[in-house]
Amino acid sequence: xxxxxxxxxxxxxxxxxxxxxxxxxxxxxxxxxxxxxxxxxxxxxxxxxxxxxxxxxxxxxxxxxxxxxxxxxxxxxxxxxxxxxxxxxxxxxxxxxxxxxxxxxxxxxxxxxxxxxxxxxxxxxxxxxxxxxxxxxxxxxx
Length: 142
What we know:
This protein has a single domain (about 10-135), classed as Histidine kinase-like ATPase, C-terminal domain (Heat Shock Protein 90, 2-Layer Sandwich), CATH 3.30.565. About 35% of the residues lie in helices and about 25% in strands. The protein has helices spanning about 15-30, 35-55, 90-95, 105-115, and strands spanning about 10, 60-70, 75-80, 115-120, 130-135. Helix 2 (about 35-55) packs antiparallel against helix 4. It is globular. One of its GO terms (molecular function) is kinase activity. It comes from Saccharopolyspora spinosa.
């Protein structure tokens, strides 16, 4: 795999930063030739995870990198990090409908379903890092 392009980091400290995360992710997906459906999935997951970073983690960062291998599909990796309270029960948090904040409880589980790869590192008092990877399987020809 080729070296990733420069990482794009967005600080998430306010609602407007969620919009910036969506814009950065959409631009990267578009530049890699992701199909419109793949762009929508990517932006939706990024929006949900950015919102979780702000609401439950007290803010943090989103770092997006794009890997493009010659002859292979592009891979967009986005990592969301916060220094919040962490998640005490990851299995429970990944269940549809579970929420500690009164929401619908579909953000984390929905992002996991939308992503090609999903990883989470967390623990009580340790903050949370969620990484999602999207692969441009049905890329638009450039």
